[in-house]
Design brief:
Layout lengths: L1 H31 L4 E2 L24 E2 L3
Antiparallel strand pairs: 1-2
């Protein structure tokens, strides 16, 4: 009975470690995938922004910049 409890605990611990590693990997990938936004009319040249919004020069909606 003690062996069963020990083996069960070890197996559950291994699955927990795998799950937390997977979540950390997904979070890191998402952070590396930050989008940049720029004015489609290029009013400000190559200037980019980290958030959606409107261009301060022409008030058009900023679009995602493809890298």
């Amino acid at each position: 009975m003690k062996k069963y409890i020990l083996v069960s605990t070890l197996v559950m611990g291994m699955f927990g470690a795998i799950a937390s590693t997977s979540q950390a990997t997904q979070k890191a990938a998402k952070e590396n995938k930050k989008e940049e936004y720029a004015c489609p009319m290029k009013c400000e040249g190559k200037k980019t922004y980290s958030k959606k919004g409107k261009c301060p020069a022409c008030t058009m909606d900023l679009k995602v910049v493809k890298k």
